[in-house]
Amino acid sequence: MKVNGKVYRSIWLADDGVGVEIIDQTQLPFRFVTVRLNTLDEAMDAISRMLVRGAPLIGATAAYGICLGLREGVSSESLEKMAVRLVSCRPTAVNLRWAVDRMLRVLLPLPEKSRLLEAYQEAARICEEDVQTNEAIGRHGMALIRDIWHSKQKNGPVNILTHCNAGWLATVDWGTALAPVYAAADEGIPVHIWVDETRPRNQGAGLTAWELVAADIPHHLITDNTGGHLMQHGLVDCCIVGSDRTTAAGDVCNKIGTYLKALAASDNNIPFYVALPGSTVDWTLHDGLAEIPIEERDELEVLRIRGKDEEGRVCAVAIAPEATPALNPAFDVTPARLVTGLITERGVCAAGRIGLLSLYPEQAQ
């Protein structure tokens, strides 16, 4: 991605080859701030407090977190304790466990003296693979957008509704749900994005909109309650969202509110696509509603809202009576029956076990 003319990824190794640098997403859209991570505890804090978020980026940060932890101890016992602590940071996003398990598989068989160097190399590979994966997702998704454009006889832009942030900032680069948008724009296909605000953390308003401004892509911010109305009036051509965990049966767990968009899309015969890397598929789960753990976050995220006042100060204000409690589930599950297709790095498939296995036959049991 480009910020003020400079190319960035969402996570990168510091110039000294030791620390790790990230974009502090809690400061966006009002301030662009980078933060250096020096320890495992700092990496865990960045994941827990959502300085980094989005399933692929959480995984990449966890991989580098292990590198930082190994600087304090390289024993197998230390490695295993690090893994447990990291996985506990965010329970829903499967990429976190995927990346940690991958690091353990690579590092545990090695002599202790070789582990630190190999950890940094493996974390870098995870990041590079993520970029290539998301670029491929973009190509496959762009073909769907191109088909819609042709079906409209190239009359006007393709209107795409998205939810939460699944762009550059949710991955190492390119994104998942927004990767097809960026690829379509690069191909000269006109697109227009309806950006859900995505309460309570407003990742759509603060992150997706910020990305689209940086990329000069036409968009409008809408309240989370507006999508169904736009669909009823023919103003949405398709929906593309991301996923934090997808079951082997094709159920999709994404930011809270995704399920309601899928219901509205189904009622209005609008394609509802989910873009995800293969690492987000949890092949051990088959019933998303019953088996995927849903993260419950601090009620203050619901009871307060952050913004910039007329004097340019960024602050949080209360929006409910002091005595009112709040419930704050971070994700919901969209059943496979409501998903038109899954856009992966290997192609597009039907949301279901047969469809997924057609792209990932090595997972057949």
UniProtKB/TrEMBL annotation:
Keywords: Amino-acid biosynthesis, Isomerase, Methionine biosynthesis. Its EC number is 5.3.1.23. The record marks 164 as: Transition state stabilizer. One of its GO terms (biological process) is L-methionine salvage from methylthioadenosine. The active site is at 244 (proton donor). Pathway: Amino-acid biosynthesis; L-methionine biosynthesis via salvage pathway; L-methionine from S-methyl-5-thio-alpha-D-ribose 1-phosphate: step 1/6. Substrate binds at residues 53-55, 90, 203, 254-255. Pfam families: IF-2B. It catalyses: 5-(methylsulfanyl)-alpha-D-ribose 1-phosphate = 5-(methylsulfanyl)-D-ribulose 1-phosphate. It is an enzyme of class 5 (isomerase). GO terms for molecular function: S-methyl-5-thioribose-1-phosphate isomerase activity. Belongs to the EIF-2B alpha/beta/delta subunits family. MtnA subfamily. Catalyzes the interconversion of methylthioribose-1-phosphate (MTR-1-P) into methylthioribulose-1-phosphate (MTRu-1-P). This is Methylthioribose-1-phosphate isomerase. It comes from Desulfobulbus oligotrophicus.
